[in-house]
Design goal:
With about 475 residues, the protein is mainly beta. About 5% of the residues lie in helices and about 35% in strands. It is globular, with a radius of gyration of 23 Å.
Length: about 475
């Protein structure tokens, strides 16, 4: 497979040169000619690993087992997977196609958004309420994280506790958690969070706060037990706290944010501070700020975490009936990008989660270039100007992940699965462009732990109806 900047045949390049069109113009022209002539010279290297009906969906990261043999996913009734009504968490063996059901929800509950532990064969996912009622049906405030050992399918262990009646319990959440992802060591979990207790307040004022999306962490080894004064309260095996600070009334032009979302751990062992010391745990996330002109804008933020959480007690970590829980002492939240004055300000492109290089020196995100094309950019956890990584004529079309060695980023682009070399910005297609209706879906493009494969989803025709199928593409021989 060839770099996308070199897809034009030599004869076509020579002909263009005769008319005075030089190589610096070829990137834009290649988009036009490829649309007309395709890319028949490339040979696909992908493998369909699932079959049958359903709207299978991959999480944006952590879908591979530690040995790179299994892929975990959730199942949904509609072919596109747009409706969160899945009842099963499944995993498929990449080599044999064997499918195993890890968990099947019961009593009207729904489950999904599954990720593997990086070192153990355990899977965590979100579970909606069993026996839903009109006042407690599935929504962002009414879900929880549960974990299953693949050797004991069907046995779900509650991760985060819930307590929605004051006085609240430190270490328990008062709402719902979502997209649980382990840090590289498999010690702490990150998640996004929304607060049931504050959901009834439509606007923040001096007397109370309102429900806003935040980022939190769960820490094992400290089980949380709650009182049973509400039927939706439950215990959890992890101690959970919020890590970010938000406000319903961000000051225009300030670093205040109204939402914290789409987060990712920084580095496999944090990052090195400017003074040479190491910040072991940090989370990069998208923060919705307000520009000086009053417009909402998503920027890159980071929160440094203390080595321990849960030392405080009472209202500080648990919150009150009018105040959300506060982050633990020692957290430090900072803004890393300020893009309001760019031609195309703010984080742009398909929904994606910020992802850090393994060494913690670069935080990847999507943003438009001056021509309005969505590209991959990075910013240091210390701040400074963003660096543009890709410079392709097609926009990035999916969430992305880094290779384990930190040299490459996997992403969708122009109906293909592509890999970009970070040091050079050179992009290589790992799959051929396909019909738009069967193009790789935007939710996930995930490197395997061994760096040799990428998992993604395509919608494939069938005799009954199209269905989402999981594919794996293997590393071609000409990757640098």
């Amino acid at each position: 497979m060839k770099p996308v900047s070199r897809h034009l045949p030599a004869g076509a390049i020579a002909l263009l040169h005769r008319f005075g069109i030089r190589r610096r113009h070829l990137a834009a022209l290649s988009a036009i000619l490829l649309a007309a002539h395709g890319s028949a010279a490339m040979k696909s290297n992908d493998q369909q690993v699932t079959r049958g009906p359903g709207g299978r969906i991959l999480t944006n990261t952590g879908v591979w087992s530690p040995d790179s043999q299994w892929i975990v996913y959730d199942t949904r009734s509609d072919p596109e997977g747009a409706v969160f009504d899945g009842r099963r968490i499944e995993m498929v063996h990449v080599g044999t196609g064997e499918v195993r059901t890890l968990y099947e929800a019961a009593h009207g509950a729904r489950c999904g958004v599954a990720t593997f532990h990086p070192r153990e064969h355990r899977v965590i996912f979100i579970l909606g309420p069993e026996h839903p009622t009109p006042d407690w049906s599935y929504n962002a405030c009414h879900r929880q994280g549960v974990m299953v050992d693949v050797r004991q399918p069907g046995h779900a262990i509650p991760v985060d506790a819930r307590d929605i009646v004051p006085p609240f319990t430190p270490g328990a959440l008062r709402g719902g958690s979502h997209v649980h992802v382990w840090d590289a060591a498999g010690e702490w979990l990150s998640f996004t969070y929304e607060d049931h207790v504050l959901a009834g307040f439509a606007e923040e004022n001096a007397d109370h706060e309102m429900n806003l999306r935040n980022v939190g962490v769960s820490v094992p080894g400290r089980p949380v037990r709650v009182k049973r004064d509400h039927p939706r309260n439950h215990d959890g095996e992890f101690f959970s706290v919020l890590a970010t600070r938000t406000t319903g009334r961000p000051r225009p032009g300030s670093d205040d944010i109204q939402r914290a979302f789409e987060e990712g751990w920084v580095g496999t062992n944090g990052y090195v501070r400017a003074d040479g010391t190491r910040q072991r745990r940090a989370i990069a996330f998208q923060g919705q700020a307000i520009t000086a002109k009053g417009d909402p804008i998503a920027e890159v933020y980071i929160v440094d975490l203390p080595d321990r959480v849960g030392d405080a007690s009472g209202d500080e970590l648990a919150g009150t009936a009018t105040r959300r829980p506060a982050p633990p002492a020692g957290t430090a939240q900072r803004r890393l990008t300020c893009t309001a004055n760019r031609p195309h300000p703010g984080i742009q492109g398909p929904r994606h989660w910020l992802r850090s290089s393994p060494d913690g020196t670069q935080i990847g995100f999507l943003m438009k270039d001056e021509a309005g094309i969505v590209q991959i950019w990075t910013v240091s956890p210390l701040g400074g100007p963003p660096s543009q990584i890709t410079r392709n004529p097609w926009p990035i079309a999916s969430a992305f992940t880094w290779s384990p060695d930190g040299r490459h980023i996997a992403h969708g682009m122009d109906r293909s699965v592509c890999v970009t070399e970070v040091a050079t910005g050179r992009t290589i297609r790992w799959t051929e462009p396909v019909d738009p209706a069967a193009a790789p879906r935007p939710e996930a493009c995930v490197f395997s732990p061994d760096g040799r494969g990428i998992a993604y989803v395509r919608r494939i025709p069938s005799p009954v109806e199209p269905a989402n199928q999981i594919f794996v593409v293997r590393r071609p021989g000409d990757i640098p």
